[in-house]
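Reopening this ticket.

The earlier resolution said the output was attached, but the attachment link was broken on my side. Pasting everything inline this time so it's all in one place.
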Amino acid sequence: MRNGTKIRWMSPRTFSNRVCRVCLAGALLTAAACSPTIDLTHALQVQDVSTGWVDAGDSDGQNKLVPLVRFKLKNSSDQKIPVLQVNAVFRPVNDEKEWGTRFQAVTGSEGLSAGATTQELTVKSDHGVTGSDPKPDLLKNSHFVDARVQLYAKYGSISWVRIAEYPVTRQLIDN
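Inline output:
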């Protein structure tokens, strides 16, 4: 012992086990990083899509409706898609102005297996239309602004990719 530092002896077997563990962890990380990239524009099929408007309560004494989309995602690839996420961007039909964006985790670390389909996902915007008309009549108002929703997906550290776009139907639906 020098200057109060205790030197611990490591047996060759313990050292060998630690080296093996470090090498195994490195090999697993390398294999994961080298797995083929999945093109989500082809691998994901958006299914059972329905859109509409939902009652969002009152906003400054006005009735408020916000756009909503419901859908399922099917993994049509032959690979598992790990940690899948979606982002829905709601916009007016003839404008690039963003009304709202909603992020949603689809799967955790278990991923979406090849050929599997998710449960129904429901995503709604925080922003929409307001007016003094009763809520069902807002959809019939001549100043009503139609909306669209763009769906983006990503997994792992891959960048967001647009997988679909749909018009939001002028119908009032239950949330």
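Reporter confirms the inline version is readable. Residues 23-33 have pLDDT under 50 and may be disordered. The first strand starts at residue 44 and ends at 59.
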